[in-house]
Amino acid sequence: MEYVYAALLLHAAGKEINEENLRKVLEAAGVTPDEARIKALVAALEGVNIDEVIQKAAMPVAAPVAVAAAAPAAASGGAAEAAKEEEEKKEEVNEEEALAGLGALFG
After folding, report:
1. pTM to 2 decimals?
2. What's the CA gap between 64 and 42, in Å, rounded?
């Protein structure tokens, strides 16, 4: 996981994600770099728009909470509880899809 963190740190700093830069970040963090893992990560990230992937993986927090909070006020009794459970299921599915997409990015 530290290899992915190193790549994200380089991206956030506006630096090129290449073998040399990844090695430097890992060494600075006290990690002994594995050349094969570095090469694999650089190859996996080639041509990937990291900002776009992060945007797709990011889940809005305020919108689902507001919808879930408004549902009980609009509905009554068991209908409100059912609406809340359905919204929670949708959030779980969206989270799983986001994590799957992020996992595909980093192999």
Report:
1. 0.54
2. 35
Q: Using the structure block, give the residue that is written with the tokens 């790549």.
A: 7
Question: What's the gap between Cα 2 and its chain centre?
Answer: 15
Number of CB atoms found within 10 A of residue 7's CB: 23
Per-residue pLDDT at 96: 61
Q: Are 29 and 6 in contact (CB under 8 A)?
A: yes
Q: So what CATH class is 1-47?
A: mainly alpha
- Per the CB < 8 A criterion, the answer to whether 71 and 83 are in contact is yes
Closest CA to 60 of 95, 93, 86, 84: 95
Q: Taking a C-beta distance cutoff of 8 angstroms, is the pair 35, 63 a contact? A: no
DSSP state of 31: -
Helix (H, G, I), strand (E, B) or coil at 94: helix
pLDDT the model gives residue 47: 92
pLDDT in tens, 55-83: 888 876 665 555 555 554 544 555 666 66
